[in-house]
User: Fold these one by one.
Assistant:
Number 1:
Amino acid sequence: MNLCSPSVVRRLMEEEGISFRKEFGQNFLIDPTVPERIAASCAERQDILVLEIGPGIGCLTQQLAEHYERVLAVEIDRGLIPVLGKTLADYDNVRVVNADVMELDLQALLSEEAGGREIAVCANLPYYITTPILMRLLECGVRFRSITVMIQNEVAARLAAKPGTADYGAITAVLGYYGTVKKLFTVSPGCFMPAPKVSSAVIRIDLFDTPRYTPRDEAFFFRLIRAAFGMRRKTLVNALGALGEGYSKEVLTEAITACGFPPTVRGERLSTEDFVRLADELVARKGE
Ligand code: SAM
């Protein structure tokens, strides 16, 4: 069964009396080369567990099941579960869970499922919730090896941006704390049914095995990044006024210059490493 054939997709959905649900970001892949390419980009080794978010009718799931030892696919739409029962019937290495990935206890589920295997994430993500899903994956306490996802091209540019460029933002600096991001390839709207209005891109985030950065106060480090980009047009000193943690302008300026930046620098020039240094400089000056 060719799951990337529009007539097959339509027939499978008609058989279950379901239609595309926009509120779940359902744009299914209909170009067979794309799921193949995404699956192949996900990991170098085969003996891993892959977490797929949003299998849809299962075109990427099938490819993942061919490439890797085990696949756990989490699908929010109950109507798609019987479809997946048919399309994945030949794969005994796939488990489908009907749930909202934002609500699941991923740590418990994955440790039970992985059986000691490394875990990678691979998904054609629903675009309405891309960033919250990525943040959840990064913060859920599971040590993923990598996260390979298709997202809007514009969001991919933001996630993979370099400091000092227009696309660089808080999410880029935060992602840099967890790993390195690479944009792999772009995918045109015509490869989906229904076709979205924008282009898409596949990125891969390779997560650090052991933390590369160890700020003295991790929560403060994240608050600092948020404040630095809260008012993008302002200088970093002025933007950090919104931190509301009692730092005077003098102390902020002193900490910024101690990191090797001029007092007029804007937040977008600082890399993740720079933010770690700045956070530590400020923690050391607390109460001054
Ligand atoms: N993997 C399929 C493909 O590539 O053709 C479908 C991808 S479609 C862009 C996104 C999928 O994510 C849909 O099947 C949708 O129902 C599912 N989804 C949306 N929100 C979800 C959530 N919070 N948790 C789990 N699945 C979700």
Number 2:
Amino acid sequence: MISEKLHKAINDQINAELWSAYLYLSMSMDAEDKNYKGVANWFHIQFQEEQAHARIFMNYLNSVEAKVELKPIEGVQTTWDSVLDMFKSTLEHEKKVSALIRNLMSIAKEDRDYAAESKLNWFIEEQVEEEEAARDIIFAVESVGNSKNDMYILDKELAARVYTEPAPLAGK
Ligand code: MG
């Protein structure tokens, strides 16, 4: 049985993942407004991934007979100074999410809730990838500098990103 403390913390995490989804959707819309369609695509996929993260946590609570209680989603920033600013904000945000996931893992360990630990392991690894992806693109955008031509090429590369359902949702 899941502890009340972990139940509440995962409920809060569902809200945090949905807020992340909303944040990246907002970045996607700002990128559309700035005519970077590839960047907009990248963030739109990020938006889908965050919704998938929320679903994984919701499925987990449902599986352990713990009720999911959805809360209001806070507003998000709507404009960024530049594409670089968007990806730097992404990295900072993902570092905060990593800390939240680590906190969930600490509670699961305190509780000796091995099932929750097992589920959270996937998120621990996912966060390493999230931070790495943001860092890689920051490096790419910084390398482009003021070259409009290079930014055009990078935007085309980001347009190629496609959504794939995260493993924990396969068949669900
Ligand atoms: Mg997430």
